[in-house]
Design brief:
This protein is mainly alpha-helical and 369 residues long. The protein contains 13 helices and seven strands. Strands 3-4-5-6-7 form a five-stranded parallel β-sheet, with no helix packed on it. A two-stranded antiparallel ribbon has the order 1-2. The longest helix has 34 residues. The mean pLDDT is 83. Its main location: cytoplasm.
């Protein structure tokens, strides 16, 4: 049983009914100042000058001169004598008890803990006459990764021979970084591609605007408006073009009208999770898109609510085969992967039946049930 806390012989519960404002009104100005010096308000928003209880009553002697103040402090420190020691310092003498470090524990391995491995005369002779490269190859095969670096390990697995200068006593160096050439800029001209889409050219089936910077809103509007009447374009790639929710809404309206587009790629843009849901929802109107990619947006985490909503929309889509989207929750990933595999199996079965029908129809042989 705990004892209740008390203050001046009374329980703290008895002070709850006291009116603090009434007590403060009975105090004089001097008593309030004394009380303010004893209390430090626990408020980080107050400046330190108001939280500090120090109150200097002296009049200022003049403006602050920092250099003169430092010189005065140094002078006072030099002129102030040191406090005398109770025992004078004598070099070489030890005051008090000298610290002696504890002895280090000696690792003794008992005979019954030692493991003796008898490999036989044949293996002992083979290991004793083996070269250093052969020992390294054997260590790589047995999986002793800590005994070698990556170059030695991969050279042993690929049977390329050990690199020169590297062995048990060699200096391990970092693998030289492979320099890959920069990816060339996208040669596509937005105005030219828009004109091809407007003309509805039969051979123009792949539009690639990936990595094209500073595409204006007007060009996106012209492209989406031209695609509404286009009947040949199948792949629409708009990755890393600065798409926002405004363009995503226009694209969603387009996907609800165009039934020839099969692949849509809007990765690495500025689309919010609600904009991604709007795009996936638009795929249910005509159900013609087979591949949709929208990963690496401004918001890396979609959230549980958005992922569940996307999962429900995907499960209603019978034609979507591939989805490029980062999902955090296992339930959403598993359900979407199962549904996409079911769509692929359905299309494969349908294609198999069509091929069988054409084959039997070509041979003019009736189908056997």
């Amino acid at each position: 049983m705990t004892t209740p806390a008390k203050l001046y012989g009374k329980d703290l519960s008895e002070y709850e009914e006291i009116d603090v404002d009434e007590l403060l009104n009975k105090l004089s100005a001097e008593e309030i100042n004394i009380l303010a010096k004893e209390v430090d308000p626990d408020d980080s928003f107050l400046p330190p000058s108001q939280r500090c209880s120090y109150d200097c009553e002296k009049d200022p002697t003049g403006p602050l001169n920092r250099k003169q103040l430092i010189e005065h402090i140094n002078k006072q420190a030099i002129e102030t004598p040191d406090k005398p020691e109770l025992k004078p310092y004598i070099p070489g003498t030890v005051r008090g008890k000298k610290w002696i470090p504890p002895p280090q524990p000696v690792k003794e391995q008992e005979a019954n803990e030692q493991i003796a491995i008898d490999l036989g005369d044949e293996y002992e002779q083979a290991l004793s006459s083996a070269t250093q490269d052969e020992i390294i190859d054997l260590a790589a095969i047995l999986g002793f990764h800590s005994m070698m670096n990556q170059d030695q390990y991969h050279a042993s697995l690929l049977n390329k021979g050990q690199p020169l200068g590297l062995g048990w006593d060699g200096i391990t160096k970092a693998t030289k970084q492979k320099i890959f050439p920069m990816e060339p800029p996208n040669p596509s001209d937005p105005d030219e591609t828009i004109q091809k889409v407007e003309d509805d050219e039969p051979k123009y089936i792949d539009l690639n605007w990936n990595n094209i910077k500073n595409v204006s809103h007007d060009k996106f509007d012209k492209l989406f408006k031209a695609l509404e009447k286009n009947t040949h374009l199948e792949t629409l790639s708009l990755a890393n073009t600065g798409l926002t929710d405004r363009e995503a809404e226009k694209l969603a309206e387009l996907l609800e009208k165009n039934d020839t587009i099969r692949v849509v790629n809007v990765e690495t843009n500025l689309i919010t999770p609600s904009g991604i849901v709007r795009l996936i929802k638009s795929l249910l109107k005509l159900k013609s898109v087979e591949e949709f990619r929208a990963s690496n947006q401004r918001s890396q985490v979609l959230g549980n609510k958005i992922e569940m909503e996307i999962t429900q929309l995907i499960e209603k889509n019978p034609t979507l085969l591939r989805l490029g989207l980062h999902l955090e929750y296992n339930d959403a990933r598993h359900r979407i992967a199962t549904h996409l595999q079911r769509n692929i199996d359905t299309i494969r079965k349908d294609l198999t039946l069509r091929l069988q029908f054409r084959f039997f129809n070509h041979r003019k042989t009736p189908l056997i049930k």
